[in-house]
Amino acid sequence: MTADLRVETEGETVGEAKWAALRELEKLHPGLDKAAVRFQVVSEGERGILGVGYSPARVVATAETDGEASPAGTEESEAATLVRDLIARITTALGISCRIDIAEEDGSLVATCSGRDLGLLIGRHGQTIDAIQYLANAILARQLPGTSVVVDAAGYRARREATLASLASGAAEQALRSAEPVELEPMTAVERKIVHLTLQDHAGVETTSEGTEPNRFVVVSPSS
């Protein structure tokens, strides 16, 4: 049995109003598929001058559900909830509607986004999704030290893993030719692990992680 949920919310901007609407809909239906939410902008609001004439932005959000809430006993961890809310807020501000699924893998959180705007979410050469991931990790480093998140969509990270493996191999060859350490770009813990694993059996080089989150990076050095 399907049911239509409808809420009307306000915010200083349309993005904030949409975010508030998503929060209200989730209260009504835990586990809501955010990609199924449709927004109607009632008013874009007015900022006013020196506080005079201000009016909030208003939106109406509707979603069709199957009438079933999330199963009991599937409460998310504090970190997972924080990551979900954070990424939902970022994507909503960007005008991207997507569903966000959170999973814990190897001590890190993986946020997988699905929906119709994945090209916009990933961006040219992955710049947008990498920026979202970087911002999420920067905020997590302050609020939950030791927690990292990988943001994925449409298998982008699998392609990224292949790129990292190639980058690692190239750095190893450069380190051997120059007899000097090679510093790679800042990476998440999951990405650094890919580099370490790629080169763990590579003769003549060793890898270390240096720096502090979220700017921690891998150094590929000739073996001593």
Structure description:
The longest helix is centred in the C-terminal third of the chain and has 23 residues, at 156-178. This protein is α+β, with helices and mostly antiparallel strands. A three-stranded antiparallel β-sheet has the order 1-3-2, with helices on one face. A three-stranded mixed β-sheet has the order 4-5-6. A three-stranded antiparallel β-sheet has the order 7-9-8. Helices cover 39% and strands 28% of the residues. The protein has helices at residues 14-28, 78-93, 118-122, 127-143, 156-178, 189-199, and strands at 3-11, 37-43, 57-65, 98-105, 108-115, 149-153, 182-186, 205-210, 217-222. It is built from six helices and nine strands; from the N terminus they run βαββαββααβαβαββ. The protein starts with a strand and ends with a strand.
Provide the number of structural domains. 3
| Major sheet attributes | 3 strands, antiparallel
What's the CATH topology name of the largest domain? GMP Synthetase, Chain A, domain 3
Q: H/E element string?
A: EHEEHEEHHEHEHEE
C-alpha termini separation: 67 Å
- Overall pLDDT score: 83
Assign the CATH architecture of the largest domain. 2-Layer Sandwich
Q: Helical element count?
A: 6
**Which structural category fits the helices and strands?**
alpha+beta
Share of residues in helices? 25-40%
